[in-house]
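hi! just following up on the protien thing from before. the input was this:
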Amino acid sequence: MYRVLVQGGAADEFFCLLLSAENRTYFRKLYRESEIVRACGCSVLSEGNRITQDKKVLNIISNRLPVGVKIEYNKSEAEPRNFDKLLLWETFPAEDNEQLEKRVFQAEKIMKKNSFFQVDIILYIGNIKTASTDLKSNIEPLKKSKNNCENKYKQCNVYAFTSEEDFIQNIIYLIVPRTIYEKKKITDQINSLLNQKEDDLQNIYYLYDFEMEFLSGQNGVLSSEQLYLISSWKNIAFRQDLMEAYFESFVESNAYSSIINEIVMYYRNFIKDICIWDVEKDCFNLEKKIKGGLLSEKKLYSKNSISAPKTEIEYKAQIYTNEILKFNKAVSDFFAENAKKILCSHISEKIKTYRGLLK
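and the predicted 3d structure came back as:
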């Protein structure tokens, strides 16, 4: 976890820029009641932001921040040495700000002992009185203030933003380690973890059959009781396609939900060490893929299916018993083989996408 401390006047403006405009008024209300503000990143694929308050701590999850970064602001002035980076958020002109001089002086002491500790000064134009942040540019004075700060505080990186869009595009450079060493170190750690997951993925093909409880039955994935309920007369009466009726009854059953839940839980446990995306949406998509594969199986078996008889008494004939057994084999084969392939393919895609983000 890369830890960033924000200090300076009107720090609420900084956190407002991590939120969409519609969330800022609510944030400011909670900000006034809080002593500490903490912001964490989430997957770029995640939608929206999340704001919660726990006593005097205000927590933000923002998709404008990368995963693995925690930003904190403490109204009581936290100790910078406990963080990896210090962001000094100031209105301009800032070069003669005594409080800024004091903070930089203290930070430089830390930098002498810790070569990886970094200090950034961010100059901005803010409208604190309104519910939204206003970064309309006053370009020439802002540039002048930036140059003065760069000359005065040579150990610091100085940024000046002329618009909210400018801030959003450059936020990544403010809150991640910039040294090649640190970047390589983090990337190598993640790649090593992904390599391990790829090895584990190969093992799924061999361990899946033993670890999935629904595959432990002697007669397939469905027990005799479950099969009886799914294929009962009330579920197939007057249907023109028996096999289609069986599949549809199965998808609506508790037996199906139980199997899907077991696969999803297996998946969650597998990806928990590398997950940087919206896991709920991801699991929903995995379920959708499995269901889609099962429905394709239904179409395949429906081609040669027969219709239901006219009475329940006729339904007890051997020909219909054979159809039930054929359905049971189809479902069991699907979850033993096809569902396993869908699961492994889904994991492989996630690892590939993650690797792409590291380049």
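Residues 128-137 have pLDDT under 50 and may be disordered.
Residues 318-358 form the longest helix (41 residues).
cheers
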